[in-house]
Design a protein that fits this description.
alpha+beta; 6-stranded mixed β-sheet; 40% helix; globular
Length: 462
């Protein structure tokens, strides 16, 4: 009889002792040119993340030139006084770096990721882009043409089309928030290099900008490095710019964006609510997560698991613009898609979930799972330097203290079920929600009208 071979297994790894964790605190300083700097040493993070925030908000765009901030942001990497567009891209590649930029309501943000060993090169390129962007006619024309090509694709996307309609419905027509962030075909077509440069010269300067640097800074003289790169960027000081309060009309109503023959209906249900400066924010985050933040949330449990109407429905809060004086706001919304024949029943069940929440409240078990998911996984969420830098930049952009995120996690852990319930009910009142449906109006209008959740209007899909 053949003797069976035995195997020696390596001992099973054992879990170590839990270590306390808190969101990292940055060091704050400034350069001689007025640029504010936040730095955060993260040992082991050999890819350094740099975020540069510019006080060039969308509301500062000239009338008729919506989208000029986006074109400017994209043009920063399209050549400087030292490099052509092609050379600039090649220099980034040689440094192993990536540079992205985008414009949103609070301002323009540039995001650099570069190996720590080539941080000097990466910062130098960003500094050149900010100090002396070329804004060549041919490059701006190309960027405008690219943006014009994107717009029809966005309008064909039910999710993007719904978001555009919700903004139009919620905010006054004279508010920048009522119009697409990256402009319309008409406004983008009017943008040229002279308009981009004028916007740059009026709003881009170090005195109103902030740089966030996160990564392993061992052996790096960051002060000298910043002084030689971003410190060479000059510009005039600026007077504080008045910021209008965010206002919105959340009268309960339904808008159907007609897509004849659509087999699905895209849902976007929203209103505005308090931003992160409001003390209700932690409870609102927790309650919203219980309502629709994950696969185990109430909305998914009913609409996906029990009824099979959808692959998933999410509830979320997204800061639009934040201000310590209470003039900021966040978008509070529920989004998802359902099959066309079940649009009416799905909305009826969704409203039933909201009414049940108001009548019965959340359970302690729901609250505990939400805290575990939001707080317990935070160390994994912030493993990369880019994730930490992005959150620190959000705090700067939203005029929050440097220890805000660390404080928020402590508040989430101590927020009770009753508080979370009250915040969620306040965030999504059944009679104060604007509902946008992108779908086949001929099939869904009558069932939706029968629900009595607000006056129903049909608009063309464009």
């Amino acid at each position: 009889m053949t003797e069976l071979a035995t195997m020696d297994f390596h001992p099973r790894p054992q879990a170590g002792d839990a270590k306390p964790w808190a969101f990292p605190a940055p060091e704050r300083g400034s350069l001689d040119n007025g640029l504010t700097v936040l730095r955060c040493h993260r040992p082991g993070q050999q890819v350094v993340a740099v975020e540069v925030l510019l006080d060039a908000p969308l509301e500062a765009e000239p009338a008729g030139l919506d989208g000029v901030a986006t074109i400017m942001a994209r043009a920063f990497s399209e050549g400087t006084d030292k490099h052509s567009a092609e050379d600039f891209a090649a220099e980034l590649e040689r440094a192993g770096a990536t540079l992205d930029a985008h414009a949103d309501h609070p301002g323009v943000r540039l995001s650099l990721e570069v190996p720590a060993s080539r941080l000097a090169k990466g910062l130098g390129l960003v500094a050149d882009a900010l100090r002396a962007p070329a804004f060549a006619d041919s490059e701006v024309e190309r960027l405008v043409a690219n943006r014009l090509d994107e717009i029809p694709h966005e309008l064909a996307n039910p999710s993007r089309r719904g978001a555009k309609e919700l903004s139009k419905e919620l905010f006054p027509a004279d508010s920048r928030m009522s119009r697409p962030r990256q402009g319309t075909e008409e406004t983008v077509a009017a943008i040229d290099s002279a308009g981009v440069r004028a916007f740059y010269e009026k709003h881009v300067r170090p005195a109103t900008a902030t740089a966030v640097v996160v990564g392993d800074l061992t052996g790096i003289d960051l002060d000298a490095l910043l002084g030689d790169t971003l410190g060479a960027w000059t510009g005039s000081p600026a007077e504080p710019r008045p910021v209008p309060p965010v206002t919105a009309d959340d009268t309960g109503r339904v808008v159907i964006v007609d897509r004849p023959g659509a087999v699905q209906t895209q849902l976007l249900i929203g209103r505005i609510g308090p931003d992160r400066h409001d003390r209700v924010w932690p409870a609102q985050v927790l309650g919203t997560y219980c309502l629709g933040g994950t696969l185990t949330s109430r909305l998914d449990r009913v609409l996906r698991e029990e009824k099979g109407y959808t692959y998933g429905v999410r509830a979320f809060g997204q800061v639009l613009r934040s201000a310590p004086d209470g003039t900021g706001a966040a978008m509070l919304a529920i989004s998802g898609s359902v099959d066309t024949p079940n649009t009416g029943p799905a909305l009826e069940d969704l409203w039933t979930v909201l009414r049940t929440l108001a009548a019965e409240g959340l359970t302690d078990a729901e609250r505990d799972v939400a805290v575990q998911n939001l707080v317990g996984v935070a160390p994994l969420k912030y493993e990369t330097a880019a994730a930490v830098a992005s959150t620190l930049a959000d705090q700067v952009e939203q005029h929050l203290p440097d220890d805000y995120q660390a404080t928020l996690y402590r508040q989430l852990a101590t927020t009770g079920t009753v508080e979370a319930t009250a915040a969620a009910v306040s965030a999504f009142p059944v009679d104060r929600l604007v509902t946008v449906l992108v779908g086949d109006a001929a099939q869904i209008k009558a069932p939706v009208e029968a629900l009595g959740i607000g006056e129903v209007t049909v608009v063309a899909a464009e």
